[in-house]
Amino acid sequence: MNIATSAPADPAVLAARQREVAAALGAVLPPHCVLSALEDTRPYECDGLAAYRQLPMIVTLPESEAQVVAILNVCRQLKVPIVPRGAGTGLSGGAMPIVDGVVLSTARLNQIVRLDPYSRTAVVQPGVRNLAISDAAAQHALYYAPDPSSQIACTIGGNVAENSGGVHCLKYGLTVHNVLRVRMVTIDGDVLELGGEALDAPGLDLLAVFVGSEGMLGIVTEVTVKLIPKPATARVIMASFDQVGAGCNAVADLIAAGIIPAGLEMMDQTSSRMVEPFVKAGYDTEAAAILLCEADGTAEEVEEDIARMSAVLQQAGASAIAVSQSEAERMRFWSGRKNAFPAAGRISPDYYCMDGTIPRKRLAEVLAGIAAMEIKHGLRCANVFHAGDGNLHPLILFNANAPGEFDRAEAFGAEILALCVAVGGTITGEHGVGIEKIASMCVQFAPAELAAFHAVKRAFDPARLLNPDKAIPTLNRCAEFGKMRVTGGLMPFAHLPRF
Ligand SMILES: Cc1cc2nc3c(=O)[nH]c(=O)nc-3n(C[C@H](O)[C@H](O)[C@H](O)COP(=O)(O)OP(=O)(O)OC[C@H]3O[C@@H](n4cnc5c(N)ncnc54)[C@H](O)[C@@H]3O)c2cc1C
Hints:
Blueprint: H1 11-26, E1 34-35, H2 38-41, E2 58-60, H3 65-78, E3 82-85, E4 102-105, E5 112-116, E6 121-124, H4 130-137, E7 142-143, H5 156-162, H6 169-172, H7 175-178, E8 179-185, E9 191-195, H8 206-210, E10 219-226, E11 228-229, E12 233-241, H9 244-256, E13 263-268, H10 269-279, E14 289-297, H11 299-315, E15 320-323, H12 327-338, H13 340-344, E16 350-353, H14 363-377, E17 380-385, E18 394-398, H15 405-422, H16 438-444, H17 447-460, H18 475-480
Parallel strand pairs: 2-4, 3-4
Antiparallel strand pairs: 1-2, 5-6, 6-10, 7-11, 8-9, 8-10, 12-14, 12-15, 13-14, 13-17, 16-18, 17-18
The structure holds flavin-adenine dinucleotide.
Flavin-adenine dinucleotide binds at residues 47-48, 83-91, 94-95, 106, 126, 148-150, 154-155, 157-159, 161-162, 164-166, 214-215, 219-220, 341, 430-431, 467.
């Protein structure tokens, strides 16, 4: 599927524009940093949301912050939209290009600038992979806690832009809790530092505003992250449940008992059966659902937590409990969970991953609702998710080549998100809004709230050049989706962008 933008439709006009912008960029960047040939730009046409594709006009690969500044100056002067891109693993289309826009890839900004075991911090360029930070810190028995399942590939710049989470974020916090300082370039070409090396920084908390802003406020050029000591030991429980609802209630019971597991993840039977032949993690594929609950700390702490968690899980109706007996077995239990998305490809040509967050106590009800939607939309759904955070990841399985199936998958996904909002949750936990959930933003937020978001965007980027048309819907879009009241032919907030 190609998403049309408000670009020149005429190929000749587009080609002339490409020559003009490439020449201007070529004047400030070495030739190997500017790509405009079709075979060079094709790899950038989508991110992890591969159902939506758009070839970019030009791709830039800056090798320094000064080059990032130069790119932004050229684009601002020529009024060219810019789409920042890390590894392109995003699942909401945040890095999807714009037909007359420039992709700014951070692939070559991939240096660990400084790693300081005394202050337990690392200063890294935006294109450094998430796992590469922990790998580098391992020699000091330290690591970077947020661990998206894509951590082998995704970059810290992308993590900051999406406020990414992972299996261990329940105990150790999301990206926003683990980043101390972000250095970024504004659309005006100014270099700003948000936050600082200390635990708090003076002034408004612009770091919190920036983290999760999906490339719409500036380009990240350097990040200072916290490193924490690797726990002395860790063990994980795999608990089986005959009923999905009982497994969901066990999640709430664990937290209510005052236990914060290092990880608390759930997989339903569709997920465990899809993963097991692929990873051979040792999962109970007869169970309706399994919970993975990790304890970490000293050997004594872990032993005590495992005993407490096992008691709560048994009380909640677990039909079987297995505890990892070695580090290798613990890693195997997690590798099944971390490879769940790729494993979906074994049982379905395509999948559509949703990302809603709900109050933990509503998990059973929402999973029952999703089961009913499977019947209604005639599509299967595998549920594998960060249960402790109430962060659902329904994987809707479909075949893009079967007529109508993608539309049904999208309708199914939108209905799941609407249910998340209805039970007091939100339409995204960690994958961002991008282009994927832009209509659901109209469901979640009132016009006045959207107006406030537009005001923040305008304060950073008045000309709307940085990742425009992502994450915050224009009021016209909400009206088109039937989620905006138009009175007497007039919509509220006349000063806001319409398209
Ligand atoms: C198999 C799989 C598993 C996943 N598991 C998880 C998970 O457990 N938890 C989770 O949170 N996510 C997960 N994701 C989603 C994805 O990996 C994250 O959103 C990740 O943070 C994206 O990083 P990236 O480098 O690939 O960014 P990209 O996809 O390239 O970009 C993501 C967004 O960040 C912006 N951006 C990128 N770099 C910069 C920069 N330097 N400055 C400003 N903006 C920038 C882009 O414009 C875009 O809006 C998963 C994805 C896959 C494919």
